[in-house]
What does this fold into?
Amino acid sequence: MAGSATSYRNAHNLAVLSIEGGSLPGGFKVKGSKAALLGVLMRRFRVEDLSWRLVDVDGLDGTEKALELASELAPCDIVMLGGVSYAGFNLIDPVRLTEKLGRPVVVVVEERPDNEAVRAALIKHFEDWEERWRVFEELASRSPIVEVKPREGGPVYVEAVGMPIVEAEAIVKELTKWGRTPEPLRAARLLVKGVSRSLLKKLLSSDR
It folds into this structure.
């Protein structure tokens, strides 16, 4: 993994794996409630590949499924997440992703993270809240939360593991063409919302 500022100067040349989540329509149930997790590999603002997994709502398999997507869609230069929580409070651990993949992970959200509110919600709803809370604690210990103002619209809030936050900020700005969401995440968000019922049936039948 390259770590210098020069390596990430031309962000549009990077192979960016973006991961976003989406809910499944009512009636699609496999071993309890499930949600879709989409990985999109993009370079030079073009989608090169994509793949899907199903994750348990409020489960603990988010990080493992994200690692599966990264393995299937490899190689990538950087991983971009549209948050830490997917499918309720099923978490993707940015620190673990970086350690396993040897790639930087950049988290981009549109609202400033409120970790104290998250902690209170975890304590209220989960017996294993401490295990889940550690994901937020470790991320906070590795990265500040930086407000980034892209081309138009409101700001986004960025955290990064495996690379300096200033490099992550520059990457987010360079990869944002419209609105305030970096193009890899914007594409993943649109694609996961547009999943057809036929594809969902295939995913559910294979229980990936």
About this structure: The chain has one domain: 11-206. The radius of gyration is 16 Å. The domain at 11-206 is CATH 3.30.2170.10 (archaeoglobus fulgidus dsm 4304 fold). Residues 1-6 have pLDDT under 50 and may be disordered.
